[in-house]
Each structure stands twice: as structure tokens, then as C-alpha cells.
Design a protein that fits this description.
The complex is a heterodimer. Chain A is an alpha/beta fold. Chain A is built from ten helices and ten strands. By secondary structure, chain B is mainly alpha-helical. Classes of the chains: A alpha/beta, B mainly alpha.
Chain lengths: 291, 272
């Protein structure tokens, strides 16, 4: 938000996706400009994750085309396994880093190994330079002291931060986040969100599928609400989140916020139970003492 | 009041925990004792039963035991070479079975079907006795290694295939998102993880192979069973000779099973 937006980096045009008979995306157009952070919200099954995955062809759209920088790929489901198409998709992916809900760090490589594997073997960066870049980004996400650790020994939040560093080492033009905090324990969400907010404020181009409304409010330049495979409404976060024009957006936000406050109510209701239990235990102990 | 109660409660809890630990330890010791006793009793009963038949000549075992045991070296050599060959075939076979190319997939599944559908002994005879008719002469030891490797390669193809499929889909996706080309994804990300998954099965295959390697005695490879047959016919003491052979195989499988479980424990302790 603090960096002025530049030229268009990502263009997705006319994206449609069928899973068998299911029409998951019904024609989506999306343009993202340099330094822009776009938050995509919507209920589960709305197609938001599929849209994100169509951008780097993790999922090949049935119809549509995607352009990132100078690489354009046209969806061609009849020839998706052709060598030329596969190579074009790979070139597209060089421009787009992706973060997954389940982090997907390589468990058999150290944190550093995770971060230098693709730069060295894909971009042919010399090892010393790859290590230097990796250390720079590991420092940025605050995990340089874990560089020789194996991923299974990290917490979920740490894993996601390493995954962010790993994606950054490829120096992509855009980062695609697929619900990056949904698999995390609530107390670990903050550390990942903080790193993402820092990136957004520095002007990293990002597309973020998320349920974290506070992140959208704090860091997004634009929020997109998707329902039933179409963009229902988009605009600045304060407008979408506080003053949505479309009834469907309003309904989604109302339900979303009330389900969250339900959780808070439940936690508050549970809280007094703990001291009560302690009192019972103390009483038990006391009676045993007398016996 | 509460403080006193808790203090007293803590003491009694400590005592209770101590007695639970002690009771558990006693139960475990008892279990082990009975377990070992059962083994010992069965062994002794079997030994006495065999001894009373009068068919076991201890002088014979003293004289020929070392000779039969000498075959164990060959048995192990055969197994190590065969398992190496089988592993290489299995990796290639598994990649073939998972290939989207119908030619490659067809060749790989034909290999698996043919080899798993015919007896190992027939395969050994074919390589040793039939190939010479086509002017391909392979000495016994090499023929045995090839036959075992070829045979186990087919079974292990399926093991590796399952191992590759057991690597989470997200691993492949993460690598692809980093723009890694397909061969690199397989070589650097999927196969190393698949290998870890199949290592316990690989150990089982090796132990099974120690026993199956006895079949190569039929083509004159001087391993344990072949030596036992020779010794038995020399002294007309077949029961004693085969008993020694059986004990040697048993000992070998126990040793390698132990090594295997030790290796597995060590790997589990690592980073996983």
C-alpha cells in the first residue's frame, strides 16, 4: 500500500474451469499490477482456490489464458501434456511463487537445502550465491538460526515462513498464497501474517486467498469477493469489508463475522470452567488429607 | 488447609506412581522370562526328539559343519548382488508402471506379470539350462544372481510403485511450482522420499531372498544348501546335514532382521 502501483504484471483472462460436470469458474478476469496486494475472499467451494491454482497452471483452466510478465499460456486441455505446453507452463511458473496451505517443504532437505534447490538446479545459480540469497530471505522471515534444521522439527508457522523464503529465493514477479494460515494453530497465525504484511508493505506483488479479514484490511490494496465461480464484487478493503454493495458479499461477511464471534463466545464460556475444576480438585485433595 | 491437602495428596500420588512403575516393570520381566522359557523348552524338546532318533551324528556335524557354513559366504554374496540388481530394475520398473506412455507402461507391466506369474525355479533353469541352447552360456553363480535379481525386481517394482505413490501430492506440486522440470521433480523430490518409505520392505525382501537363494543350489552354486547336499551324501547323513543348513539359514535371517530393525530405528530417530 505504501508503494505506488506499477504496470500490470498478471493478467488472467476469461478463466473457466469445469471439474467433470461442475462449473467451478464461470469466466473470471483478473489484472494485478506491480506492488499490488490482492486479497481473494469467499466461502469454501466458491472457486477462489481454483482460480489461484489456475494462475500458475497447478490446475489447468478449461478455457482462458494467463500472462505473467512476458510469458503467456493459453489453456489447451486437449494438448496439456504436450512438451511445448509443459515447457511454456514451466516458464510461467518461473515468474510466480506459490505458498500452500500445507506448506509442502521438502522433508528430506534442510531448511537451507529447501531454499537453494530450485535456484541452483532450475536457474543454475552458483551454490555460493544461492546460499547467500537463501540466507538473506531466511533472515527476512526470522529463521536464519534454523538453516540447518530439517522441516519436521519446525512448527507450522516456522514451516510456512521457510516456504515463503523458499518462494522468494526464485525472485518471482508475483507470490500466490493459497490459504497460507488455514492449517495453522491459531497462536501461530500471527507470525506468518506479520511476514506477509511486511512483504505487502515493501511492495511485493501478491495474490492472497485467505480467511484472514484483518490481513485484507491491513495489507491488501484490493479485495475480491468470489461466489459460485464469478467475481461478485471488488474494491478497496474498507469498501468491501465495511460497505459491501452486493447482497451476497454482505451475507458472506455477516455469516463469517458471526461464526468468528461464536468461537470467541464459546471460549469465554469455557474459561470459567477451569477455575471451578481446580476448586473441586483442591477439595478432593483436602478430604484425602483428612482421611 | 488446601496447601496441606495438596502436599499430602502429592506424597500419596508420588508413591502411587512409583508403585505403578514398579508393577509395570515386574510384569514386563515376567513376560520376557516366560517368553524365553517357551523358546528354550521347544528347542530342548526338539533337540531331544531328534537326538533319540539316532539319526544325528555329532561327529559328522563336527567334521562337516564348517564346510556347510562355508557356503554362507556365497549365499550372502548372491543375495547382495541380486538385491542390488533387483533394486535397480525395480526403480526403472516402477517409473515404467507409472508412466503415461503406453509403450513404456506396457513393457514394464509385461515384465511384472511374466515374472510374478512363473516359478522362480523355472526362471533359474531357463537362464542356466535353456539359454546355452541359444549360445548364451552363463556360469552358475552369475545365472543364479541374474535369475534372483530379475525375479525380485518384479516384486519390488510393485513395492517401489506404491512407495512413489505414497509421497504426498503436495511435494510434487511444491516442486512444480518452483518451475522444476519433471525429471528433476522425480529425481530430487519424489524418489528420495519414496526410498525412505520402501526401506522396511526392502529389508523384508532381502531376508526372503536369503531363503530363496537356496534354489540356486540346483544349478551347482556352492552355497549353504549345495554344500549340505554334498556333505550329506559323503557321510550318508542327510538329516544332520540339512539340519545344519536349516540352522544356518535361520541364523542368517535372524541376523539380518536384527540389523534391519536396528537400521529402521536409527532412521526413525533422525529427522522424520
Amino acid at each position: 500500500m505504501s508503494v505506488a502501483l506499477g504496470e500490470v504484471v498478471v493478467t488472467a483472462h476469461g478463466i473457466q474451469k469445469w471439474f467433470g460436470p461442475l462449473h467451478v469458474l464461470r469466466g473470471v478476469d483478473l489484472e494485478v499490477r506491480e506492488h499490488e496486494t490482492v486479497g481473494i475472499i469467499g466461502r469454501s467451494g466458491s472457486g477462489k482456490t481454483t482460480l489461484l491454482r489456475c494462475i500458475n497452471f497447478m490446475e489447468e483452466a478449461t478455457v482462458g489464458r494467463v500472462k505473467i510478465r512476458d510469458i503467456e499460456v493459453v489453456a489447451d486441455p486437449l494438448h496439456s501434456s504436450s512438451r511445448a505446453q509443459q515447457e511454456q507452463i514451466r516458464l510461467l511458473r518461473l515468474h510466480a511463487g506459490m505458498l500452500f496451505q500445507e506448506f509442502n517443504l521438502f522433508p528430506h532437505m534442510t531448511v537451507l537445502g529447501n531454499c537453494i534447490e530450485a535456484p541452483m538446479r532450475v536457474k543454475k545459480v552458483p551454490k555460493a550465491q544461492a546460499i547467500e540469497t537463501a540466507e538473506k530471505f531466511l533472515t527476512k522471515v526470522g529463521l536464519i538460526e534454523k538453516r540447518d534444521e530439517y522441516p519436521p522439527r519446525l512448527s507450522g508457522g516456522q514451516k510456512q515462513r521457510v516456504a515463503i523464503a523458499r518462494a522468494l529465493t526464485m525472485e518471482p514477479d508475483v507470490l500466490l498464497f493459497d490459504e497460507p494460515t488455514s492449517a495453522l494453530d491459531p497462536e501461530l497465525v500471527g507470525e506468518v501474517i506479520r511476514v506477509m504484511e511486511e512483504l505487502a508493505h515493501e511492495g511485493t506483488t501478491m495474490i492472497v486467498v485467505t480467511h484472514e479479514m484483518s490481513f485484507c484490511r491491513e495489507a491488501a490494496d484490493r479485495v475480491i469477493f468470489i461466489e459460485e465461480g464469478v467475481i461478485v464484487e471488488e474494491g478497496p478493503p474498507e469498501q468491501i469489508l465495511d460497505d459491501p454493495h452486493d447482497e451476497r458479499t454482505r451475507q458472506f461477511l455477516r455469516r463469517f463475522l458471526s461464526s468468528n464471534s461464536d468461537a470467541i463466545d464459546a471460549a469465554a464460556a469455557a474459561a470459567p470452567a477451569a477455575p471451578a475444576l481446580d476448586a473441586v480438585r483442591a477439595a478432593n485433595d483436602a478430604s484425602q488429607g483428612h482421611g | 488447609m488446601t496447601a496441606i491437602g495438596q502436599a499430602v495428596g502429592n506424597t500419596s500420588t508420588t508413591q502411587l506412581l512409583k508403585s505403578i512403575v514398579a508393577a509395570n516393570r515386574r510384569a514386563k520381566t515376567r513376560y520376557r522370562l516366560i517368553y524365553s522359557a517357551v523358546w528354550a523348552i521347544i528347542l530342548v524338546v526338539l533337540a531331544i526328539a531328534l537326538g533319540t532318533t539316532g539319526k544325528i551324528d555329532f561327529a559328522f556335524i563336527q567334521k562337516w559343519g564348517g564346510f556347510i557354513l562355508g557356503g554362507a559366504g556365497t549365499t550372502i554374496v548372491v543375495c547382495i548382488f541380486s538385491i542390488t540388481m533387483a533394486t535397480m530394475l525395480a526403480v526403472v520398473g516402477a517409473l515404467g508402471r507409472l508412466s503415461s506412455n503406453p509403450v513404456i507402461n506396457g513393457v514394464a507391466s509385461f515384465y511384472v506379470s511374466l515374472v510374478r506369474g512363473t516359478p522362480l525355479l523355472v526362471q533359474i533353469f531357463f537362464i542356466y539350462y535353456s539359454l546355452p541352447e541359444f549360445k548364451i552360456v552363463i556360469p552358475g553363480l552369475e545365472a543364479g544372481i541374474i535369475a534372483l535379481g530379475f525375479n525380485y525386481g518384479a516384486y519390488m517394482t510393485e513395492i517401489f510403485r506404491a512407495g512413489i505413490q505414497a509421497v504426498p501430492k503436495g511435494q510434487r506440486e511444491a516442486a512444480e511450482a518452483l518451475a522444476m522440470p519433471g525429471n528433476l521433480v522425480m529425481r530430487r523430490i519424489v524418489l528420495p522420499q519414496a526410498t525412505r518409505i520402501v526401506i522396511p520392505d526392502l529389508g523384508n525382501q532381502f531376508v526372503a531372498m536369503i531363503k530363496d537363494s537356496a534354489l540356486v543350489s540346483t544349478i551347482g552354486v556352492t552355497e549353504v544348501l549345495n554344500n549340505a547336499q554334498l556333505a550329506g551324501s559323503q557321510g550318508l547323513q542327510f538329516t544332520a546335514a540339512f539340519l545344519v543348513a536349516a540352522l544356518i539359514y535361520w541364523g542368517l535371517t535372524i541376523i539380518f532382521s536384527t540389523v534391519q530393525s536396528w537400521l529402521e530405528r536409527r532412521m526413525a530417530r533422525g529427522d522424520r
